Every structure is written in C-alpha cells, then in structure tokens.
Amino acid sequence: MTKLAISLFLLHLISLPFTRAGLYTAFSTTGHIPFSDTTLPVDWSAKLKVDVTVNSFASSAQLFRPEVDTGTCGFLFASKDLSDWNPATEALETNKGWQFLSSSDLLYTGHWVTRDLYFNPRSSTTRTRSTVPILAVTKKVKCSSYNVALDNDTCPTAPEWTDTNPSVRLMGIGFGRELDGQPQGTPDKNAFINIQSIAGQSMGSHIQGYTIDSNGINVGLTDANTLGMTFQDLPARNPNPPVSRIPTVPRDWASLRSNCISFNDGISCHSGEVLLDTGIGNSSMRVPLGVTIPRDATTKVLNDGAIVKVNLGDLPLVVERFVAGTGAATTVTPDFAFAYNSDRGNFFNTGRHVYRAWRTAFDSVNGRFGMVAV
Ligand SMILES: *[C@@H]1O[C@H](CO)[C@@H](O)[C@H](O)[C@H]1NC(C)=O
Ligand SMILES: *[C@@H]1O[C@H](CO)[C@@H](O)[C@H](O)[C@H]1NC(C)=O
C-alpha cells in the first residue's frame, strides 16, 4: 500500500460579513480540561485523552482516560469497569443502547445509564461535573454488513467477530452524528455540553459549548476563548416548523456544511457535510456514485498529486487545500486519505490533523460552529 503524504500549502481565512465581536460577552463561567497522558501542546499525531472519574471524585475513585472523539456522541464505557453497574436494575429493555462506528465497522451494544462524570477529578479548583447517560457496553462486534439506514442494535449477518468482554472508553463529544450509525447520539449524551458544576460552583453565566485546541477542551464559551473566531450557523436536525432553525430535539444540530468537497482543486465541487474528527488520523471523502476518483482501486487511497480542496463551512469559514503525495509533513497531513463513491450524501472527514491549523468552537445553544487559525 502506498502511504499517502499530503502537504497543506494554503490556509485561507475569509472574513464573513456577519461576524460579530462580543458574541459571548454575557458569559464568563468556563473551565479548562487539559488533554492527559501526553505532552502539551499536542501535535495531533496520536489519540487525545482526558482524565475522568465516574460517580465519585474521592481519591479512591478509579481514574479513566477515554479518547476524546468528535466523530461520535456519547461516552462508550465498558460495563465491566463501571463499579456501580447493576444489570438487574439497569439493563432494561427501555434503555437498550448501541452505537455503530462507521469508520471501523464496529457495533457497540449495552445500556444507557446516567452517571456523574468528574473531569479534572483530583483538583478541587478545576473539577468539572457533567451528568449524562453513558453507554455501559457489554458487547462489541465487527460488522461490515451493517446498514446505518436500517440496522439498529443487531448485525444483519454473522459478525466477523464478537467480543462479549470488551474494553472500550470513548468520550464522544460530536454533534449531528445520528444518521451515521448513532441515532441515540443526541445532545443529552454529550458530556461537554451538559456541565453541572465547575470547582463545586453552580454554573452562573455559562453557555453550554466548548472549544478545542492543542492544550485540550474549554467548556463554556466566552469572548476570550472565542477571540478572532468566525462563526457559521449549523442546520437544525428535524426542524419544527420545517423551515425554521428550531430542532425537534433541543440543541440537536446537523453537521457543518461544505459547498465544495473536491479532489481536483475545486474544478468540480460536491456539496455536503464535513466533520473535524479528533478521533482518527486518516481523512475520508464520499462523493456521488459514478464520479471517477483518482485513487488506488484496491485501497481507495487517493493518488499522489490529487489536490484535495474542501471548504469547511458553506461560505466558507476556511478553505483547506492539500496535494496528495508531496511528502512534506507540515500541518494538516492525514495519515491516509481515502475516497469513496456513495449515494449516502457527500461528506469529508478531515481527520484530527486539521486541528494543527485551526482552533474550533461548538455553541450548542445557538447551533454555531467557529474557527480561527492557530
Ligand atoms: C430499527 O428501529 C426502528 C425504529 O424502532 C424500526 O422502525 C426498524 O424496523 C428497526 N430496524 C430493524 C432492522 O429492526
Ligand atoms: C488509517 O489507514 C491505514 C491504512 O489503511 C490503516 O492501517 C489504519 O488502521 C487507519 N487508521 C484508523 C484509525 O482507522
């Protein structure tokens, strides 16, 4: 297999007419959750984790280090590690849960159970509590026949393998992921937009949202932590009334749009959705059936020289442009760039290396996504 080297040679920030200064002047309650088990700032070449304890912040409470993943929504947590997991009262038909991770064809099943999560658990001055249903996972199967439009908690054919004692710790903090195998990945499951207290204090003037940068996560948007950012409205999921921006499920926003996803320097653009995914080092693109893609027929990896140009946002917020195979590991260089034909809707997953160039913000209340060059 040819490893694809992509070098970024254009970072392009375009100011938008509706950019407003002082969007978050009214809000001041914020907290910082650093990436753990690594050197800060991170270089985005490896998975990112945060420290968390479950239902207790006592020094005896076991510390966990889940990966932080904007490509999923919900805390997937091995039930065997959940000290107070009680299958008799908690494994009920009514709270059955599952998530399918399309990038790896893994189907996780278990039950949603509500827990207090403590980030920065060992520090009384930064301890941050979030209360959310987490998925107590009891089974993991590899299921490449899974159809996200049809299948729920069951693989439609015999799985490639089954693990009934899985180890999983994935802190899914994304939005708009419901149609990609995570119908239960609704905003109530996102730990970083359901913050209940910081340093033991109730939330005061806090707006539920977060920023991501090379040092970690800031929960609660403020003018300071969104300084210089350009914001774009996200579409509502299932708006009601239909022409409104009012999602049926509160704060349920769809993915960031793109008016140009291309592998030929924007000569032919495919509009669709983009995902700035902290969870994966590879990028991946979907374009319509019948479009000829310059790629290796077997591996689906784009050919050297293909120019990937994607507008992040539909105005756009920023434009990302790569040349496949130029070899320089500068900034936004996914490990491998895959491209597929699909009738599922056009899509571009940047992979985590995009965060080398931009800081981002997600405002869950107003449904806005912000970006600024690092
Ligand atoms: C998945 O769940 C939905 C909603 O309950 C149901 O309509 C559908 O038939 C289910 N799919 C399968 C394959 O069972
Ligand atoms: C990225 O792609 C490479 C090449 O196919 C593969 O070995 C690796 O497992 C992929 N990474 C992830 C996280 O899927």
What would you say about this model in short?
The protein is mostly beta strands and 374 residues long.
How would you characterize the overall build of this protein?
This protein is mainly beta and 374 residues long. The protein folds into 2 domains: 5-17 and 253-373, Beta Barrel (Cathepsin D, subunit A, domain 1), CATH 2.40.70; 34-208, Cathepsin D, subunit A, domain 1, CATH 2.40.70. It is 1% helix and 36% strand. Bound molecules: 2-acetamido-2-deoxy-beta-D-glucopyranose (2 copies). It comes from Rhypophila decipiens.
Cα end-to-end separation: 33 Å
**Series of H and E elements:** EEEEEHEEEEEEEEEEEEEEEEEE
Bound molecules: 2-acetamido-2-deoxy-beta-D-glucopyranose
Unreliable stretches (pLDDT < 50, length at least 5) are 1-19
Class inferred from helices and paired strands: mainly beta
**Percentage of residues in DSSP E strands:** 35-45%
Instruction: State the shape.
Output: globular
Biggest sheet descriptor: 9 strands, mixed
Protein name: Peptidase A1 domain-containing protein
Keywords: Signal
Signal peptide: 1-21
Organism: Rhypophila decipiens
